[in-house]
Write a structure and sequence with these properties.
The chain is about 35% helix and about 15% strand. With about 550 residues, the chain is an alpha/beta fold.
Length: about 550
């Protein structure tokens, strides 16, 4: 047959025969370059409709009258992030379809006023019913990540807003607004292209060239049309069918500054108007490893952008991504009461409390004692998200710490130098007329005896020794104003504002008492030479 050739679009390419009687290209690189130049557009427009919004103010254009979104309890923190960031730039009414738990959460966050309007029509049972009745074998379902019934509520919330306004701006609940979103909208429908990188542009045929989480709409008929397309003419949920929207109505398209998500392939504009990513890993659990990586990458990029350009939103982001279950190992005389009070009145205010020694701060009505190990285990397993548990350090052990961590709890403690713990404990106990005893009946009558007692009595030493489970905790630090400030900001997005201390004593500190001769160098040195003392300091 001579030298075989492949003719492709009026151009020929050489072939060679393989061992299995098939043919392959002699030079795949040449063919790839030709294919890319022919089929991947150098300018947008070949694969999808692009009609950029004018940068010059026209005589008439649509001014945003409302916003709308859908949320459920599993993404309520993302919704809070959206509403918080949206309110930084816009005061228009916001229409929300959600469940009761999400409404309560957003309200407790202080984000709800008369301009936030709810419709409770996304309860779990209702969504389950819709999935069973409509989507049990629907061709649009392409994975097990997205909830088809919740998606259907997108069109409903747009209708909800358009009942009261001539236009609305729909946003997915995992969007963060970083600028004023008003543009010179002249078309009744404005779509957000994915702006895929060159190597991924063909994904548009599978997943859609336009993103379904970002639409300006000034057409009261559009949501119904979109719903019909979703139910009858889409292979990837409500998104793939959007490829055909420009065929039936005039649209404009958002620029690359809008709706920056993982699909951009790491190509990020210098100025960002909106970010689109999940702030937690909850939704990502069902995604494949590559999508989890891509979302993680855009999240890291977006968080850094907020930290640099919108520190207020960055701090709120930290609040919304803080641990959902928090366990405080309360080390005695290390500002534990202060830490508990601060957290329960600020960033953990809405959390269900499991505080030992406080009958009014736990559901089990336990007072005047610590939790037992069995009780801690019960709390560990049964407590729901957004719970805060605390117990003194001597009543935790390695097994229960591991169990807490295995069940998704964030565990932490603050320590204090042993000599300062002993001085504080002695002064506080003396002032409150409390007994200081270890394994026996002996009670120290002075600070000198207190230090001697602490070294010699193994049973008593547990009040100052570093417990063997410290390495298991997620966070350990010496308590001081600086460390506590860093801890609050990094883990809870809370800016520290010092408050008066509680449970204080007239303790003047180890150095004062040592210089005053109330603690001899000999006794102090016995503590310093103790191997447990050196172990304790290693954590500070």
């Amino acid at each position: 047959m001579g030298n075989p050739r492949l003719k492709f679009n009026h151009k020929e390419f050489g072939l060679r025969q393989t061992d299995d009687d098939t043919y392959e290209l002699k030079n795949t690189e040449v063919f790839q370059k030709y294919f890319d130049s022919e089929y991947v557009p150098q300018k947008h427009g070949y694969f999808f409709h692009e009609n950029p919004i004018s940068q010059i103010e026209p005589e008439q254009y649509h001014k945003i009258e409302s916003f709308c979104f859908v949320t459920t309890e599993n993404i309520q923190r993302e919704a809070a992030m959206l509403l918080k960031s949206l309110r930084k730039f816009h005061d228009q009414p916001v229409y929300i379809i959600c469940d009761k738990l999400s409404k309560r959460f957003l309200t407790n966050q202080g984000l709800v006023d008369d301009n936030v309007i709810f419709k409770i029509s996304a309860e779990r049972d209702e969504l389950v019913g819709i999935n069973k009745d409509i989507f049990h074998s629907h061709k649009c379902i392409a994975n097990n990540v997205h909830n088809p019934a919740a998606i259907l509520k997108k069109m409903d919330v747009m209708d909800f807003a358009l009942e009261h306004h001539s236009n609305t701006f729909f946003l997915d609940s995992d969007i963060i607004v970083l600028d004023d979103l008003q543009e010179y909208f002249q078309a009744k429908v404005v779509l957000s292209p994915h702006h895929y990188p060159r190597q991924s542009i063909l994904n548009g045929y599978e997943n859609g060239f336009y993103n379904a989480g970002y639409i300006f709409c000034a057409s009261k008929g559009f949501p119904k049309m979109w719903k019909q397309m979703y139910l009858t003419d889409s292979t990837f949920f409500e998104q793939e069918c959007m490829n055909r929207i420009p065929d039936v109505c005039k649209v404009q398209t958002f620029s690359k500054e809008h709706n920056v998500g993982f699909w951009r392939g790491g190509i990020i504009p210098k100025h960002i108007k909106t970010l689109h990513f999940h702030i937690t890993n909850g939704v990502d659990k069902s995604r494949d490893a590559n999508l989890r990586r891509l979302n993680s990458n855009i999240r890291d990029t977006g968080v850094e952008y907020m930290k640099t350009n919108h520190i207020d939103l960055y701090n709120y982001y930290l609040q919304m991504t803080c641990p959902r279950k928090v366990a405080f190992v309360h080390f005695g005389k290390a500002a534990g009461v202060y830490i508990n009070q601060y957290l329960k009145s600020t960033c953990l205010k809405s959390y269900l409390k499991y505080f030992s020694w406080h009958m009014d701060l736990n559901p089990y009505r336990v007072a005047d004692r610590d939790w037992t190990i069995d009780e801690l285990e019960k709390i560990c397993v049964q407590a729901e998200d957004y719970s805060f548990a605390t117990n003194h350090h001597i009543n935790w052990d390695s097994k229960i710490i591991k169990k807490f961590k295995d069940n998704g709890w964030f565990t932490f403690t603050f320590l204090r130098r042993p000599e300062e713990v002993l001085c504080s404990l002695y002064c506080f106990s003396t002032e409150q007329n409390l007994h200081i005893r270890g394994g026996g009946d002996k009670e120290p009558k002075s600070l000198e005896e207190m230090f001697d007692y602490a070294v010699r009595d193994n049973a008593f030493a547990k009040v100052w020794k570093a417990p063997d489970y410290l390495d298991q905790l997620d966070y350990v630090a010496e308590f001081n104003e600086e460390n506590f400030s860093i801890f609050l900001l990094e883990h809870f997005g809370e800016v520290y504002e010092p408050r008066p201390r509680a449970n204080t004593s007239l303790n003047k500190g180890f150095n004062y008492f040592r210089e005053a001769g109330e603690i001899s160098d000999e006794v102090a040195q016995k503590l310093f030479d103790h191997p447990e003392y050196k172990k304790h300091l290693s954590y500070l």
